[in-house]
Amino acid sequence: MTEPALIGRRKFIRSSVMGAGCFLFSRTPPFAAASPTAADSRIEVLLGEPLGTISPNIYGHFAENLSGVIYDGIWVGENSKVPNLNGIRKELVEEMRKIKAPVLRYPGGCFADSYDWRDGIGPADKRPRRTNFWAQEESASSPANHHYDPNQFGTNEFIRFCKLIGSQPYLAANVRSLPAEAFYQWVEYCNSPAGSTTLADTRASAGYADPFGVRFWGVGNESWGCGGNFTAQEYAVEFRRYTAWVPRYGQELSFIASGPSDEGWDWTRGFLEEIVRKGPRELHSIYGLALHYYAWNLSRGRTKDWNEGKGDALKFDLLDWYELMRQGDVMESLINGHWQVMGEFDKDHSVKLVVDEWGPWYRPGSEATPGDLLEQTPTLRDAVFSGMTLDTFNRHPEKVAMANCAQLINCLNSLYLAHEDNFCVTPVGHVFAMYAAHQGGQALPTIFSAPSVNYDRDGKPASFWGLKGSASLRDKELVLTVVNPHVSEARETEVGIRGGSLKSGTATTLTHSDIHAHNSFADRDLVSPKTRALDFKGRTLIYSFPPASVSKLALTLG
Ligand code: AHR
């Protein structure tokens, strides 16, 4: 990794258009100062024009009852030889505490619309076994609890897990195969005060006298598909019915509507059009509209087939790397596009976006535990993709209220991999640890100027941006996260703060000389972030962002 370099104060003053004691930049043109260094790029953070508060919930997670996510990943059982806290994997809890995980979505995904929450409460040995939604996709050799849900991990265990890791629970209700009454009763089970209802007594008899206080409720999942195959209009009618007169018990309830996938503008439009047909007040029953976006098609336009279009998680070339970056970049246009459509019906934008499933999705073959459905091994490429995605959310604090990476452990873009007593943090997990510092900060506009990545995409010249990221401020602490997508070139970058000066700071960078690098049970720390202090001799910061990297500069303002 190239050492960060700083221009000396005297040199800076000679080259700066301001030349005064404090480090301020002129407005036009933004990068007028001729740099005496070899810097080829520049980042300018604008202190005076905050965009809004970055919701900590943008850093949320998703754990579905799918293959190895719950059983083996989170739940190992109380009698397991794997160190556990009442059945919950201890090492996972310890790691999640480090990343300040704000919110966790459960039990699905598609599983949610097949799940009866009543199966997962009461004495563990009396709970029924049920066919898991995903059973027919599972291989014959996968464990029985992946085919048939033993219901050992239910609402109580999920809430206990949330408490252990300091997360808010986000429960997804079944709209496809349970009546609205079952939804109200789940709310009653979770939130009714001790001693008030029979369900509160049932909760207390399991050791949970105090209400769980669950605020976030998903009303179905992908209701255009596995969640009921509804039209947008049909689903809007169901949404109004499921959310009408749900008992509050003094707990604010935030309902999240099943939203579009990708560029499903028609779903967003059709749903909201039907919602407001009964009057604009109906919008107030919606906290967020869920957007799902998976980056899966690496075929460079050759096919739209769900299986054919996928790439390999571990075996990829430079073109595949850049193709994933291009797919990741689509997120920003989806946020802007759906926000614009939402504005057609919701002029005040009271409904926010909740991106409750996102991440790359590869073809099978890279499972850390062979046979685990939808499990893939994240590499440095996925870390760069994840940094880019989190930066995108940070840049839209007024639009994105929550986001949930799919999925937490033993699945798609997982932060952790585990099997029996093996465990490792993936490069994606490290990115979440680095970016946690943004939570609750004021997002700041940040201008990136860097040479584009230029490459040959199947005989046609293609380009991709050279540096991007996001910045946030809390008191005097500025956090700047930056992605360099170039596979082989570092970006020597001058970092300027408009409206303030820099005093001290550290730089943390996640990279590796091999773009395929990943962590595994045998080599847990191959890809891990390195932190170093920045030496502030002068006032202009030059930092070299290594190729294929995610970096965080934690800077204290003077
Ligand atoms: O995350 C895996 C699946 O992807 C979820 O169950 C579903 O909502 C989505 O299609």
List keywords for this structure.
11 helices; globular; eight-stranded parallel β-barrel; binds alpha-L-arabinofuranose; seven-stranded antiparallel beta sheet
Tell me the layout of helices and strands.
Layout: E1 5-7, H1 9-15, E2 41-46, E3 52-53, E4 60-62, E5 84-85, E6 88-89, H2 90-98, E7 103-106, E8 130-131, H3 144-147, E9 148-149, H4 155-165, E10 168-173, H5 180-191, H6 198-205, E11 216-219, H7 232-243, E12 254-257, H8 265-276, E13 288-295, H9 318-345, E14 352-360, H10 380-394, E15 400-406, E16 416-419, E17 422-425, H11 427-435, E18 442-444, E19 446-449, E20 453-457, E21 460-464, E22 468-474, E23 477-484, E24 491-498, E25 502-510, E26 530-534, E27 540-545, E28 549-557
Parallel strand pairs: 2-24, 4-7, 4-15, 7-10, 10-11, 11-12, 12-13, 13-14, 14-15
Antiparallel strand pairs: 1-27, 2-19, 3-18, 5-6, 8-9, 16-17, 18-22, 20-21, 22-23, 23-28, 24-27, 25-26, 25-28
Helix pairs in contact: 5-6, 7-8, 8-9, 9-10, 10-11
This protein binds alpha-L-arabinofuranose.
